[in-house]
């Protein structure tokens, strides 16, 4: 038997929640609740806590009023208390650990850290599962919440996509310290990693460093993605965004990388949000990373969809808004 | 931190392949290749090896000529060589282990065993991944094979569903010995488990004991399921089965349990085959089993779809065909 | 040139609106507005006037409080003022004409009549087209109204389906007097017409006499149907009905006759309502009627879907509620 | 009653067939049969006659070997023999009539003419309806042919889209002489019609003059369109075109004008072919033309899809290939 095969690490279960910062809190809240069809489960300080109907946890989005759009933090759930301790110890060792915090609404103690690019993250295990009130009780008890036939009706948080100055360094950090697996990547002609898609679940990705942050700002968000059941629902989302005056940047169309079906819009606070479907399962425990050359990447999307320039340059916070931008 | 939480076992990666026995080999082969759109990758002895276009392994179905319809064996892939050894040791200890075999086309050494009901199974790790010939090379290299726009066009093997005399015993065996997680179950009024759905992946199930084998035969198959991308493709499959004269037993409709979208047909050899979509992800590492009471179960499918009696009684081999039936 | 070909009559443009009677007005109104996603455009006396977002006319459903569920009347729009006069003259001659009425909200003078079975109908030409208020203005001006991302979101009125004691007589009346074309029919072994589907548009049917009224009551409604864009939207409607506790009688599934995709529910007032998609176009000006024998009809729906007995017997008003029932 | 309302003309039933010229006959034939899934019903001289499974007539596409890509002719079916005579008389009077021809495979005598731009057209009434051979007999007899689960599987011919030097003149000709109705148009700032969509059926268009022929060649084709049942099937077509190496020019996406869902490819002979779904019904007999200003038109497609320059300039024959180009 081949002894070189390393035992995989299964310490991170999945993406838990994302905190988005918005300079237009009320409008952003309208977007997520009325247009996307999410539920607000709590309000604390300047933050609203929001959930999609299929999310099992209390919430997956923390929307926080701020001066600028951008990413607050990204939270990962560990697979067990011991897994959490193992990862905290490894992060501590990495020098990028920031230490434990008490927790927040809906989850227990969390270990905070940042990736090399400065995106703030945390890991936690203990989780409050959602218990619906009477009016949101589902007809079938194997579903966390009644399906809200309102707006787009997103099902669940899917992934985050970040900009980074040095993608090799950041993807390597997540792999080494947290056990992420690199499922697809772009390798530029100069040898640098141009983009990296990684998973901890059996979805083909849970996080991506989608492109190099040419502006050199650090800690920037390309987008956060919510999943829909099929391509038709992504098309229907576009119909709804059109009616509601939401800025559609690109799609619906099919990515060549990962083959997911995408639709990108800007929520009123300025953050890019993706509607996604057809994320593939990667059940193979020794899946080999798919590497796209720069030339292959430049062929664009699967169906030759023309992407606007902003798709490659726009990220939050914007350069003019960034603290030192 | 809560010390009572047991570390999950991640030793089984996924369902690897299923061997079906058919008394009508040529007609069954036509069904899987021309109607379902699968590819035959090899023929050995009385068996054809078949794959769906999204399967990463060489094949997921072994179709074997036999006197009677039924299940040959079910194969599970381990997550690593060490995981395979751990599971073999545990099975050995269980008294239901049968020992190692050399392997078969497409995979390395396998440890053979049977569940308490007599369904023959094996675990292996080493796997031959599919390398398409020129005419089946996909346009996008992150896909194992060109999409065959022929027939139904199933994407990948999804799960197996078995009959068993004692479901508690069988589901308990898979949980204890292989680390399967019980995601949903039916608990009868008399206290027995009436059905059990279990997973090793993050799909909400990979195997089910779908009902008690009232005929008391043992080792019987309810169905094997192949996955499609969305509900519309399951409807389209029904259109195709209608045109091709394939017996449609039930569906398309939506299960209450697991909420999957189903369509059941009999392949020409007599085995029931399911077209499935909308299998949900269970990312929660401490997901609590959903237990349906007998009364809840008797409410039927999600949309009150009337199921034919055969759905509850028909399994292969048929009683009159079973060795001692 | 073949002189036997009769010039078709194009005097009736389409089904204009349907009046439904409900003994549960508030609940029925909730069903049509909140569950189906229709808009109430006016309230007059005991009636609410409702529209689907794709209807070009002011409304297509008049919902009227009454002691019993059932059909109020069915209104057809003529293709021109002259066409209206021609049809009124023909109806007058038939002995089933009732004379002119002033019109109602949204349309001009109407000629009233009843089919031989006693279903009350009218024809009108002059029509008020819908002009949306600011908050319902669509993003694209070639659409009558903003798409309401609320509930099912039905697009437009499609057809009505009636019970009748003598189907030959009723379908013949519509053909002879109004120029309806018989597109499909069931011919019973005893020579009687068992069901008849007819169109005036190029949809494959606009009205059907769906079955013989064995209860012998007369003037009964089997269902009224609203159209959705595709099968997936009909499935989604079933998901919503499940969550909202609406009684699902049959479907979603595919009819053999006409091949439409159907879903039948009872609105809270007791009338059956169909969600329909995939109604085919019949562009052939000399389309030959498709005749199904009794034996063919008894084969059931396209995919062998089992229909509940109520589908064949339930109609409004119910026998116990009918005036002389 | 309003006497100013003109009685509509219903003399043209629908688009009957289109003849395409191809300099790559074998490759074009492969495209239509293997990639689109059409059937070849006959071969005569240098022409193949092809049908989609839902077409009621013997064929809807005549594919003819030629030096250059482009349009052969467009054939319209009349609603009756008398209607054919009426239209022939009117065309005769117009000065653009060319006289009667004997007919071709599948239809009777046809009156030939050209629109002012030189697109060759004909009208006929007598039609051979398709009778499937044994292996193409459908399971349901209300369908002309068995659904071929091969390739895209287009259902029926939908429309043609032409370039013209003077769109007002051409759309006016079809309206005045043949009774076409102008459903949507673009009106340029200089007062000229920039594009015109017209119907004879209750589909929202059957022919369009999609843009001004800036090259000034005359008689050019923008595209011919085949219909699919829903948007998902158009997406699936894109998946198949990608695998088969067919050039995808634009889409899948949603038009603002007419709101149809589109996908444009070039068949191997160079002609643009559209896959279309969601063509709306226009049941209103006095539908008012929707006029888009130049500024409105320049906003582009419904979801801001970026169209390649070729979409506005490419038409067959190409300038360099045109007889006098």
Give a quick set of tags describing it.
homotetramer, 325 residues, alpha/beta, 2,3-Dihydroxybiphenyl 1,2-Dioxygenase, domain 1, 9-stranded mixed beta sheet, 8-stranded mixed beta sheet, globular, disordered N terminus, ferrous iron binding (chains A, B, C, D), Catechol 2,3-dioxygenase (chains A, B, C, D)
What is the compact description of this entry?
Chains A, B, C, D: Its EC number is 1.13.11.2. Chains A, B, C, D: Residues 14-126, 156-278 form the VOC domain. Chain A is α/β, with parallel strands linked by helices.
Instruction: Write down how many β-strands of chain A occur, each being a DSSP E stretch of 2 or more residues.
Output: 17
Q: What would CATH call the architecture of chain A?
A: Roll
Oligomeric state: homotetramer
Number of helices of chain A: 6
Given as residue ranges, the uncertain stretches of chain A (5+ residues, pLDDT < 50) are: 1-5
What is the molecular shape of chain A? globular
Q: Cα distance, first to last residue of chain A?
A: 54 Å
Would you tell me the overall average pLDDT of chain A? 95
β-strand percent of chain A reads 25-35%
Helices, strands, pairings?
Four copies of one chain form a homotetramer.
Chain A: E1 12-22, H1 25-35, E2 39-44, E3 47-51, E4 61-65, E5 70-78, H2 81-94, E6 97-101, E7 110-114, E8 120-124, E9 156-164, H3 167-178, E10 181-187, E11 193-199, E12 207-212, E13 221-227, H4 231-244, E14 247-254, E15 261-266, E16 272-277, E17 290-293, H5 294-298, H6 310-313
InterPro entries (chains A, B, C, D): Catechol_2-3_dOase, Glyas_Bleomycin-R_OHBP_Dase, Glyas_Fos-R_dOase_dom, GlyoxalaseI/FosfomycinResist, VOC_core
Pfam family, one (chains A, B, C, D): Glyoxalase
Keywords (chains A, B, C, D): Dioxygenase, Oxidoreductase, Repeat
